[in-house]
User: Which sequence fits this backbone?
């Protein structure tokens, strides 16, 4: 994507973020690093927080939601080992920042957001920035988006008490899913690979995300 309208200051801050927060801390996937060097995180931050857009911490975006810390975003994307032909489900569109990164990395992105106001704002911003391989859906993220399944990868930006069965069912053979699992006080990323119809789970970094809220009683995760 062409973001030539960005100021030199934001471009410099973005380059420093990639060097100091990501590459220096062990992120090695060059496609992920290049995408994070291109996508203007400040565009996804509310005006009062734009001067912090390239700092290594989450930013509030309203509705009790946040833009995740850049380092955690990079770790999750790298863990998924995405390829350009992949079709990906994102649970928790939020501001649309991770959605934009995914759109840079894969063929098609389906993103589910339960807050209609956030979904509409993200949809408008992504369109303005020129992303055409993204579909933003208002719905219950814990139930995924079965209409477009199966997915090569699923990424969840909210913490579940346990892995939602509906998401596992939408993962293709050989597909990968990464999500935070745990309580409000104790969460850990889990990387799941579907092998021979069975999920293989690897425990990853400790983290802290907002809770994944289900709108249904069946399979509720809070």
Assistant:
């Amino acid at each position: 994507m062409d973001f030539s309208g960005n100021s030199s200051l934001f471009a410099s801050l973005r380059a420093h973020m990639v060097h100091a927060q990501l590459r220096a801390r062990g992120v090695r996937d060059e496609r992920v690093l290049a995408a994070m060097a291109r996508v203007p995180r400040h565009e996804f931050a509310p005006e009062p927080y734009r001067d912090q857009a390239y700092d290594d911490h989450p930013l509030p975006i309203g509705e009790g939601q946040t833009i995740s810390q850049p380092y955690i975003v990079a770790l999750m994307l790298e863990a998924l080992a995405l390829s350009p032909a992949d079709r990906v489900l994102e649970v928790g569109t939020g501001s649309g920042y991770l959605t934009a990164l995914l759109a840079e990395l894969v063929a098609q992105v389906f993103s589910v957001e339960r807050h209609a106001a956030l979904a509409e704002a993200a949809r408008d911003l992504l369109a303005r920035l020129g992303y055409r391989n993204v579909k933003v859906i208002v719905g219950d993220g814990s139930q995924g988006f079965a209409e477009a399944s199966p997915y090569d990868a699923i990424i969840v930006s909210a913490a579940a008490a346990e892995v939602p069965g509906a998401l596992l069912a939408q993962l293709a053979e050989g597909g990968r899913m990464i999500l935070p699992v745990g309580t409000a006080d104790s969460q850990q990323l889990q990387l799941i690979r579907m092998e021979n119809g069975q999920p293989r789970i690897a425990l990853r970094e400790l983290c802290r995300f907002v809770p994944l809220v289900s709108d249904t009683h069946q399979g509720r995760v809070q």
Notes: The chain has six helices and nine strands. Confidence is low (pLDDT under 50) at residues 1-5, 217-222.
